[in-house]
Amino acid sequence: MTTTTPRVDLHPALDVPPLRDLVHPDRELWTPRELRELTSAVASELTTPLLEILRYDRERRWWARLGLTGGVELWLLSWLPGQGTEPHDHGGAAGSFTVLTGELSEEYRYPGGPVRGATRPAGSALGFGAGRAHRVLNRGMIGAASVHAYSPPLVPTREYPSLLDIPDEIPPLPARRLPLERLRELADQEDP
Ligand SMILES: [Fe+2]
């Protein structure tokens, strides 16, 4: 008897061929550019099912996990006006987000550099490497939604009181080389 180890875990509403192909289950480590292409493609090719599962929560930011492999995690987030993150880095993981609807404000900083700010309108997509910290906020008048991806998956974020507090060097944390089933248990406990 053979047992098959699952290589990809997808949201039931998005368990469709486009996403199965886009998450490349065999790819272990994604570059910022590959992550940007992933979130951009998911936002543009799967807009309708994403909008069908999208929810807003007045108490806190809302999220749904869209996909998980041994190499990447993929999330849909929503942001009501005023909702945002604390300043944080991604613990050595590379990341990306694409704004699906609405508009987000981002403040970001590379170690040793100045704090910069940018407005991210619907359709904008960016990828970033390990040495970057940021804070994302909905300063608009309407809700916003965004698609996020990180690689390696489930590397804990680190929060800071201010972007000015990030260290000169952000040491990468070890990626969790775990079976998908164990990664899924961790993902159920964590927010993106
Ligand atoms: Fe982030």
Name the CATH class: Mainly Beta
* C-alpha-based Rg, rounded: 16 Å
Q: Which outline best applies?
A: globular
Distinct compounds present: fe (ii) ion
Bin the helical content. Answer: 10-25%
Number of helices in the DSSP assignment:
4
Entry summary:
The protein has four helices and eleven strands, in the order E-H-H-H-E-E-E-E-E-E-E-E-E-E-H.
Question: Could you explain the architecture of this structure?
Answer:
Helices cover 19% and strands 31% of the residues. The chain has helices at 17-22, 32-45, 47-53, 180-189; strands spanning 8-10, 62-69, 73-79, 88-89, 94-101, 103-109, 116-121, 125-128, 133-137, 144-151, 158-159. It has 192 residues and is an alpha+beta fold. It has a single domain, classed as Sandwich (Jelly Rolls). The chain contains four helices and eleven strands. The strands form two sheets. Strands 1-2-3-10-5-8 form a six-stranded antiparallel β-sheet, sandwiched between helices. A five-stranded antiparallel β-sheet has the order 7-6-9-4-11, with no helix packed on it. It binds fe (ii) ion. Fe (ii) ion (FE2) is lined by residues 88, 90, 134.
Protein topology:
Blueprint: E1 8-10, H1 17-22, H2 32-45, H3 47-53, E2 62-69, E3 73-79, E4 88-89, E5 94-101, E6 103-109, E7 116-121, E8 125-128, E9 133-137, E10 144-151, E11 158-159, H4 180-189
Antiparallel strand pairs: 1-2, 2-3, 3-10, 4-9, 4-11, 5-8, 5-10, 6-7, 6-9
The protein binds fe (ii) ion (FE2).
Keywords summarizing the entry:
single chain, 192 residues, alpha+beta, Jelly Rolls, 6-stranded antiparallel beta sheet, 5-stranded antiparallel beta sheet, 4 helices, 11 strands, 19% helix, globular, binds fe (ii) ion, Cysteine dioxygenase type I, RmlC-like_jellyroll
